[in-house]
Amino acid sequence: MRKLLLVLTLLLSISTYVAAQNYTEVVYLKNGSIIKGVIIEQVPNVSLKIKTGDGSLIICQMSDVTKITKEERYTRGYRKDTNDRKAARNTLKGYK
Fold first, then answer.
1. Phi, psi at residue 72, to the nearest 5°?
2. Signal peptide position in this chain (predicted)?
3. What span, in angstroms and rounded, lies between the C-alpha atoms of 39 and 93?
4. 23-74, what's its fold?
5. Cα angle at 80 between 85 and 71, to 5 degrees?
6. What is the chain's alpha carbon radius of gyration, rounded to the nearest angstrom?
7. CA–CA gap between residue 23 and residue 30 (Å, rounded)
8. Residue 51 and residue 39: Cα distance in Å, rounded?
9. Beta-bridge mates of residue 43
10. Which of 8, 24, 57, 87 has the most CB atoms in a 10 Å sphere around its CB?
């Protein structure tokens, strides 16, 4: 029983980690700038520390932030449009 509980807990934590990797935080500043990355430190009502995709760290004051959102991260080879005729033909092999 303990092994089953341990395995289920492990699977749940792994699936949560994998699902979290598909999103990136987007910080909108009052001056019109947009910063995309991972928020690695947030001091409530004081500041944000953001690590961008190129590895640089950006620190901004919360008074300069308009809003913070999450966007879906697109990876190479990921194709969102499935309405392509060629893709539709390949999925219906043997059916005419």
1. -70, 135
2. 1-20
3. 45
4. SH3 type barrels. (2.30.30)
5. 165
6. 20
7. 23
8. 6
9. 47
10. 24
Produce one character per residue of 63-85: b if its CB has 16 or more CB atoms within 10 Å, e if not.
eeeeeeeeeeeeeeeeeeeeeee
The one-letter code for the residue type at 58 is I
Look at residue 74 and give its three-state secondary structure: coil
pTM: 0.56
Q: Could you tell me the residue ranges of all domains in the chain?
A: 23-74
Residue in the block written with tokens 């910080």: 27
Q: Where are the beta strands (DSSP E) in the chain?
A: 23-29, 34-43, 47-52, 57-61, 65-72
pLDDT digit string, tens, across residues 6-37: 888 877 777 666 655 678 899 999 999 999 99
User: What is the residue type of 48?
Assistant: L
For 39-65, the pLDDT digits (tens) are: 999 999 999 999 998 989 999 999 999
